Amino acid sequence: MPKKRSGGGLSPTQQAAKFLGVSVLAGAVLAGIALPAVGALGLAAKGSVESFDELPANLKTPPLSQRTTILDSQGGTIASVYSRDRTVVGLKDISPYMQKAIVAIEDSRFYQHGAVDLKGVLRALNNNARSGGVSEGASTLTQQYVKNVFVEEAGDDPTKVAQATQQTIGRKIRELKFAIQVEEELGKKKILENYLNITFFGQQAYGVEAAAQRYFSKSAKDLNLQEAALLAGVVQSPTRYDPVNDEAEAVKRRNVVLTRMAEVGDISRAEADKAQKAPLGLKVSRPKNGCITAVKGASFFCDYVRSVFLSDPVFGKTKEARAKVWNQGGLTIRTTLDPQAQKSVQQSIKDHVNSGDEVATAATIVEPGTGKIVAMGQSRPYGVDVKQHETTLNLSVNQVMGGGAGFQPGSTFKPIVAAAALEGGMPATKTYSSPYKMDYPAPVAACDGKSWNEPGVELTNENETEVGPYDMKEATAKSVNTYYVQMISDIGVCPVTQMAEKMGVARANGQKLEQTPSIALGVTEVSPLTMASAYATFASRGMYCTPVAIESITQRLGNKDKSLEVPKSTCSRAMSETTADTVNTLLKGVVEDGTGTQAGLGSRASAGKTGTTDERYAAWFVGYTPNLAGAVWVGDPKHDRQMVDITIGGVPYDKVFGGAVPGPIWRDMMSGALDGKPAPEFSLVDIPDADKGKDKEKDKGDGGGRNDGNNGDQGGGGDAGFPGGVWGDLFQGQGNGGNGPGGRRN
Fold it and tell me: Most buried of 144, 155, 237, 353 (most Cβ within 10 A)?
């Protein structure tokens, strides 16, 4: 936004306009125009100035834009954001020196005159006539306040700002009438308070409190004489008298203010002389604005909070309405972020993945049963400096909330398939032949009476030794691809996508879930927040709660605080308690003696699932305890670097598995987040070992099928990958050399 009084002088045109303005005002005042009863002005060409009495009688004073403070769940500050850095304070919280200094230099007769200073107008008119230019103006402090109100109302619209500051007689007359109203309604002290809170002091500081903090790192109430004089002098031209960039000019201007204070009797000549010899004494606090300044690595969470505010209708019916409230600021937003959990997430990320690594990681923790997001972080720092590996892309969330198109979750999707099957009545002892290699079964039932029927696409398990029969418990612990493909061919795709939707699983790019059997192996791109929230459904025994980031908001309006409505988590039953307890029993086995043993939390009850996509473009661990659920993704956001023969966090890896890198990150972040917290147990069920022999021939499941890979499914995401050929060519080569439409197991 253009700075008011930012120049070092007036152009000849501006001087002429100002001279004319002073002359017109002098004539107006002399004619008695300052009295509300007087009629038309008749001072300019027809139509150029409205009738004085026809001008609006009430000045609409917009709430002053202020900084917004974002807090964690314990009340600690995460970040401050603002369109204008301003903190409104009362006159009692402004140094008396500051009050006297601004009056002395801007309007020394402020307490003696009304809205217009007749003597000041005549004096300015006389002096300007003698000099042949404009040596002084005649606007009172009240008129300056009115002008600033116009500027504040204009916001950041350059056209409106220009209109609010244009040097025209019409604007001067409107300013005059509103000044009369303000004088009658507010009184001198309130006008002075409002003026000191609204005016611009340079260096992005609006209002005297922000200015005191910016230049001296102290509150406005603690300003001494020379500090107050400096700030009062800056107001006339924040650029010319900027003490940070031009100390000499600032000193000259400060001393002019001190001299004027002595002339009007606010201070003695001796006090002025002493203050004029003092150094500026700057203790500059640099502007700290926006989520980039967030502490505890919470910049991405801060940005998510902003996205929630700007997108949720609870804060305004339209995007423009919500943006207006956000930019107006003055908000104190208490969030769900738990400082202990956030610190643990950031430390675990730092310990395992470097910011400059070829791949990145993103992690999110939510609270089951409430949907509260308690931690969110990633290895790539927040910012725009690519050379420093910075990014503003939030890898933890969906595209519409500032994230990307998401990542294939691999085998972490399998528990959702299991939940759908169990909810439909399948026993946890169900056995499938689960061969090492097979074709996708076809046809497979989909929603709306449709079916998926593309035979001839082969998939495999991770290792040739993985040959069934397997029951659900062992197949889940070992993450057997062919078992889950046979399962989805039995129950159909529709129950799986319906269960996923009940658990809040949606594609990160906003598109619908694919109706293909390869969904069992995790080819649908999702975000870490989505997976953490979905697994929280298991932890809360079948209740899915939508994620929330905001606990409460208060808005400062004048001297009063107003509570705003905030989005609430909506909880609904996605599955029966028995189904959830069964899945918990299955996934507890994964961390005890399955692919996720490196993620185990020792004596604390935990459950989870690993996932590694085709060609190792992504690896996951998603897990939970009864009181927290978290998801960790590791991979290349651009989907270029396969995690083979790679160094991550200074450690070389031949191949990256979900249990090898994401698993330990999850273990460490959850351990820290849960330190000192209760350690409840899961409600488990008894799953007896199945008699696998009798079903071995019955459930061979050797039908054909394919994964069409539409909308970026990319030939991978579970525990097997595509064969090469056309699929690899179509989907960035990701199926080349793979094992079927799922991805890899782990």
Answer: 353
